[in-house]
Amino acid sequence: MDTGAASADQAVALDRRALWERRWASVAAGRHGGPLRVLLRGAGAAVVAIVAAEVHRTHDPGVLCPLRRFTGVPCPLCGSTTVFMELGAGHVGAAIAANPVTVLAGLCLLFAPLGGGARWQRLSNRSRLTVIIPVLLVSWLWQLHRFDFLPS
Fold this sequence. Notes:
- The chain is mainly alpha-helical.
- About 75% of the residues lie in helices and about 0% in strands.
- The protein has helices spanning about 5-30, 35-60, 65-70, 80-90, 90-100, 100-110, 115-120, 125-145.
- α1 packs across α2 and α2 crosses α4 (about 80-90).
């Protein structure tokens, strides 16, 4: 193959990609850009969750959390995989019961293009930690309660 023809094909491919990127940037920056990105994120997450739930239904790998697997004590993020699998199977209540903090974080990530993500990025690291650390502590207490490490 002629290298001149190959480089011409590459240039055309790069032009097409640049055109696509410019089109997407104009749509994303437009009036409907935020809702469109939310829709695309939600659709992508739904497809992945449904496929993962089906794979998990046929081949359950057991406990994935290393802390829980080796010590029996759940971590603050325990149940996050379960949340994903339960949502993929359509069991919203079971997903919330598994780890409500993960459900809340997922919703925040899903709707971040509507403006919340930009506000979060503008916060200082200290302000972010002021939110994250108490949320993780509440999540850990929830997991300890869920696995009967705390009295009811």
